[in-house]
Design a protein that fits this description.
The protein contains 13 helices and two strands, in the order H-H-H-H-H-H-E-H-H-H-E-H-H-H-H. The protein is an all-alpha fold and about 300 residues long.
Length: about 300
């Protein structure tokens, strides 16, 4: 897939990500498109209803081998392998991403925050690490902040996509915070009562994501100036989706929650003000400790 098609895919399938990418330089933006296409390609293999789970597993496992050998006939994978070489991206990082997607091929019913954070690192924190490589970020502390941001964004995705995930036999909201803990996946989208219970759970999850966004912000304000603004935009826009879900009384059952173009422009102005005044946010060391404990189990930074 060429970069024009990549731009179309990014603009139409990841509007918030696309908007934030506009604030990168052209060369970095093109590299980010290559990263996005790879992530979208492997994610689609995990979600494609036309493929059996067995076939999806075979295809994803094959990609892991191709990343190790640095050879692939697939243009998207080939371009990503070139990106890995350009920025010396450790193959274990995208392989962890694929492992996370492979875990989605089985029925998902997350037990606790520890399990959720490990999963979110794999499918989103890894993207933060690869973005660090693209931006030339070497400091370990900033890499942890990048992982925090990826995890926070994943919690936003989970909050927004509860209904779709239920229909795929997936519940990512941890049992330890759920009011409703039964495994009747198919009943929830049809029951107003169960939906109201899940809405209470969404509040807890979005509150947790806000804490993690605040932890990530510590690193964002330390990034080189040319990267600080676009990453801050991506963070704030994603967090604003969670805020909109909260303001919509956690009703994600009737329609998909997203930000309008006007909302994105307004939020972007707010981000600029936030950066100018170097606004410090509240910190939650308990959450940080739990995140770091789980991250260190599965990644060496």
């Amino acid at each position: 897939m060429n970069l024009k098609k990549a731009k179309f895919s990014l603009k139409n399938r990841a509007k918030t990500f696309y908007f934030a990418s506009l604030f990168f330089s052209t060369d970095k933006r093109d590299d980010i498109k290559v990263l996005y296409l790879f992530c979208r390609f492997v994610d689609d293999l995990g979600d494609d209803k036309k493929l059996s789970k067995k076939v999806s597993k075979i295809k994803l496992t094959k990609i892991k081998k191709e990343l190790l050998t640095r050879k692939s006939k697939n243009q998207i994978i080939h371009n990503f392998i070139n990106l890995m070489s350009k920025y010396e991206i450790d193959h274990r990082i995208p392989n962890a991403l694929i492992d996370g997607i492979l875990s989605d091929l089985s029925k998902v019913n997350i037990k606790d925050y520890n399990q959720l954070f490990c999963y979110s690192y794999k499918v989103a924190g890894t993207v933060g690490l690869m973005m660090c490589d693209i931006m030339g970020v070497k400091e370990n502390s900033l890499k942890f902040n990048a992982i925090y941001l990826g995890i926070a964004m994943q919690l936003t995705n989970i909050s927004r996509d509860v209904k779709e995930d239920l229909l795929r036999d997936r519940i990512y909201i941890p049992k330890e915070i759920r009011v409703h803990v039964k495994n009747d996946f198919y009943d929830i989208p049809l029951s107003d009562k169960l939906q109201r219970e899940f809405s209470k759970d969404l509040k807890k999850l979005i509150d947790t994501s806000d804490i993690i966004y605040d932890l990530a912000w510590e690193g964002i304000i330390k990034l080189p100036l040319k990267y600080r603004f676009p990453i801050a935009i991506a963070s704030f826009l994603y967090q604003s989706i969670g805020t909109k879900i909260r303001n919509n009384k956690y009703n994600i059952w009737k329609q998909r929650i997203y930000l309008t173009k006007i909302e994105k422009v307004i939020k972007t102005i707010k981000v600029l003000i936030k950066l100018i005044y170097n606004q410090q946010l509240c910190k939650n060391e308990d959450i940080r400790e739990k995140l770091n404990k789980n991250i260190k189990k599965i990644v060496s930074i």
